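Subject: mismatched residue count in predicted assembly?

I count 544 residues in my input, but I want to confirm that the predicted structure covers every chain. Input:
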Amino acid sequence: VITGELADAFASKKEGICSIASSVDSVFARPYYLNVRGQFTRQIAESEASLYAASNWAASAAFVSQRVSDCIFVDLGSTTCDVIPIRDGKPAATTTDFERLRERELIYTGALRTNIATILRHVTLNGEKYRLASELFAIAADAHRVLGNISAEEYTCETPDAQPRDLQHCYRRIARVLLCDVDELGRKNARDVARQVERAQVDELAQALAFQARKHDLKAVVGAGLGEFLIAKAASKVRLECSLLSQQYSKTLSKVFPAFAVANLAHDAFQR
Amino acid sequence: VITGELADAFASKKEGICSIASSVDSVFARPYYLNVRGQFTRQIAESEASLYAASNWAASAAFVSQRVSDCIFVDLGSTTCDVIPIRDGKPAATTTDFERLRERELIYTGALRTNIATILRHVTLNGEKYRLASELFAIAADAHRVLGNISAEEYTCETPDAQPRDLQHCYRRIARVLLCDVDELGRKNARDVARQVERAQVDELAQALAFQARKHDLKAVVGAGLGEFLIAKAASKVRLECSLLSQQYSKTLSKVFPAFAVANLAHDAFQR
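Triage response: the counts match. Full output below for your records.
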């Protein structure tokens, strides 16, 4: 499954897909590629390159749909959140990222890398509303770290200020979003900012879940990814059943679920 | 006037102010510093460092208040927008950035550097709502360039993808915020995204102007900075008179107004 085609280095998604596939072809003897329809192919025809863009969610959805015939599959990772309706044992999602942004199947918010200034424009502290600074000063990982939603080891991405990931620096980064030093803002207020970040992420996902549940008449959520804690809260908010893949498999597998899924799909397709 | 104290390199604003002042002291024989009260001092006492943080707006406000006794002075630059009420010939603004974010005296939005994903979370295209990608894919300069609000020469900041500043690349960056190639999104839709960026910036500023006009009983706006075009639209939206410093002085002076203002203040303070 290919997901790197949006990198700055490529002028277009097609160029990205073809360049990545060409590198893979030069290294591996017999690679297979999974497209967004859940099909494996030996090569990527240039005219079909778009079918291979951002296909990691398709692997997970194909795998889950073989096991749970009706559910909303949600994978909330470091950067994005896939919300895939599965109906009668088949993924019922659109295919391009552009369509997915429209259908609330792709919520571009994550548990680690997301710039807090893209999640909130204002926070309310002690009853007063404050505008945030629109820089890359703090990320979701800083908020979830001070709330105890993720462990120190789970803060795996780079920090926006190239400073350490310890709690003290997480607080410092959050304070900076209000152009404050930590002493000026106070740790209590910083945690309040973090709670508002979490609430905004949960609310957006909850709305998407309610939308998919209504659209496809679905009642259950299957969650994966290091942001499972946000999925559980969002599902609870709109009263949908929720099961988490970290409980069914393991936390490690849940976090790399597209890789686990594509390995299983390949095993089924080629080994029997 | 000091404005660099928020840089990643400094653990606190105090450290930033003291470090910058110490460098300046080592290079210049007899420097003077302007604080947020509009006073020049020969040195910065460590205990008063906070009075020198983000003081460039104070220079402009002190200068303008000597010429226009009652107005809302607005300086919209590459990154931020200062909204300073001037009443009875005196700046009536708060002093710290934290207070300024609360009082709508500092709107952290600019005409060039601002990440589009911090300005909008959704756009509406052909009646459909699309969620944006929360990356640093495109900036306000890309939007204002395709709208013709700024010239090629006025796009003076770095591009987020380290690619050229020409129109073709501006369109490409805007399309990317919707995870699209330009062909996929279409140039017409890209301009529509740009218009929604402009509208969001104008609306936010218009609300701040209306708030200040009410709070301090003010009726006129004096605008400066390369984002004067946004100030004029915002003032018009809330029916406030608006004069622009590019017309009174020149476009070049308007863009570097804090420097022009502090030079004039220093001339008045020390030359007579």
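Chain A touches chain B through 44 residues (CB under 8 Å). Marking this ticket as 'not a bug'.
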